[in-house]
Amino acid sequence: MTQHIKVIIEKHPDGYVVYPLGLKGVIVGEGDTYEEALADVQSAIIFLIERFGADVLDDTASVLEVFIAEAGVEAKRSRRNFDDEQPRRYADESVQSSHRA
User: Fold this and answer.
1) What's the pTM value of the predicted model, to 2 decimals?
2) CB 100: neighbour CB atoms within 10 A?
3) What is the dihedral angle through the alpha carbons of 53, 56, 57, 63, rounded to the nearest 10 degrees?
4) Range of the domain at 33
5) Domain for residue 92, yes or no?
6) What angle is formed at CA 34 by the lines to CA 31 and CA 39, rounded to 5 degrees?
7) SS3 per residue for the chain
8) Residue 84 maps to a domain
9) Count of domains forming the chain
10) Is position 93 within any domain?
11) Per residue in 5-48, pLDDT tens?
12) Residue 24 covered by a domain
């Protein structure tokens, strides 16, 4: 019997990434084309089931639909400037560089 598992497919500049829904564990498929990515995730799902058994199939029938939405968030930049950091000092000041000018 064929098990139908819903997946999310993302298109990126360098290819496609696929995430299956309703599985215990995390797997991802990828490919240069939509078809390659889908085949990759199907292969990964088959491997997961063969390796760990049908128990990895969480109640996939309960996922009726998948919605994509945007959540607006404002990311604040860190005030820390790594270029302004002072060189590290060792607790033991006797540790010195072997290269002296």
Assistant:
1) 0.62
2) 5
3) -170
4) 7-62
5) no
6) 65
7) CCCCCCEEEEEECCEEEEEECCECCCCCEEECCHHHHHHHHHHHHHHHHHHHCHHHECCHHHCCCCCCCCCCCCCCCCCCCHHHCCCCCCCCCCCCCCCCC
8) no
9) 1
10) no
11) 888 999 999 999 999 988 888 889 999 999 999 999 999 999 98
12) yes
